[in-house]
Amino acid sequence: MAAVRNLGPNIFLAAAAVIACAALASWGLDDHLFWDDEANTALFAQNLTERGELTAWDGKNLVGFRAGAELDENLRNTYMPPLQYYVAALSFAAVGPGTIAGRVPFVVAGLLALLFTALWVRNLTKEFPWALPLFLLAVSPAYLLYIRNCRYYALSILFVSAALYAVSAPPGSKPRGAALALLAFVSGGAAFGSHYLSAAALLAALPVLLLSDVPRGVFIRRWLACAAGVGAAGAWILITRGSPFGAGVAQPDGHPWVERFATLALWHLRDLGTFEFAAVGLWPALALPFVLRPMEALKTPAKTGLVLVAFCAVFTLATAAASPQPLNKSDVADMRHAVALIPVGAAVTAIAIFLLWNMARAAGLVALAAVVFTNVPHFGFAAPSSKNLPDVGARCTLCEYAMEPLRDRATSTESLVRYLEDLPRDAVVFIYPTFMSYAPMFYLPELRYACQLTRDKDLRPELEAELPSYLFWEDAQIDVAVIFGPPPRTLSGPLIVNYRGRDYPLGRYQVVDSIDVYPEDRSRPEIPWHTFDPLELESVTYRGYLVARIER
Q1: Which whole number is the average pLDDT over 358-383?
Q2: pTM above 0.90, yes or no
């Protein structure tokens, strides 16, 4: 009890933060169906539950992202980190497959990450209210949106946070030291099993903590344990699943590596703020104890904040160096690779607010209110605009998040599923782009989804002979096509689709209907791409999906 009393008010703030995070993350958790990446995870998890292996093939339908680029000759997924599928499969096995069952275990992982964040922040600096970063995470829309996805994001955050705690903890007794070394090993392996890039970036960035007051010898031993865990997980994946780096999922963009690295590094550093991962506009406050004599006593927490800024920088550079993101597909970073930095960014922001509070109470309160209720300190208002979305502008993102379940809107995924529900059972459906097939494939498994593979895919001969012809672009005989894009000049004619540089004739089409919704699914978690309320169509003649009957 004495130990609890010594924690002071932090323990109550931490408990309140966990409760608030649980409530906000669960708010409207099943309002939207899985978007395509979530559905991808759910389908593999369901196949794992029912067939006992991580296969894309369920006996009727197949998850063939980019013509099977993620799959080996046995149709097993060898590209994506596997831990997310096992976590979702355990939930499906316990309560049955579904939207809630797919998301809850990842919310739990996000809540556990809060606890590890509190522990490693306390390890690095004790002259600071260590529960404040937990509060900032609990009300961070970016954090809440990521941890409620049926995807690897929360797992990556959890195991990076656990590794930070394990390597930064004081020595203690031999049993405690052995337990922490084991935690470092397990966290490293689980981080690799959650997200390869995050694990590599973690190992690159952890040595930055030597600039703080962590015990050098203890730190090095635990860092080595963490690296051993990464290596062990990598060896297990290589032995059991094959090389995850052999699949050509990301399309080459022709840019030299140095140009790609420099561009992606700049994008990632900029988008730490614009994607609302951290209130980077407050980070200059870390310099206050070094320039204002009355604040000299706070140099230790300020130094910790600067060390964590350096950690973010190295993590970001390592991510940019290894990222498969092509430059010609976007003008922003693929921040999914950096989600593990959200707790680190919250810690730096909390230290900055603490310093401003000690300089002037009003300054600290204003900074805290600005971080919680606006996106101004994040520079979220300056996020690069998209051709599909207007500028975000200054707003209260937390307010938008809280209001979203109260606003009735159908995502494009939900509109597709609702439309396809009325088709005859066993109808062969072609959906373009093909990755939009995955949510309907999960929720409407009785339909048959065409064009998931090409004949160029290397498969075991006996397996290729087993697969039905509708799965192959070259042979598909489809009944209905649902296609995003501008309407054709005529309402009937030959349906020829260019896929990966090749034209595929799929029959003659006759447009019979349209689905007038915003075509791209904005329920995905990335800010500023996530939309919290209904979007008005820019042009009814362009936006939406065309539904065509196919005549063979």
Answers
A1: 95
A2: yes
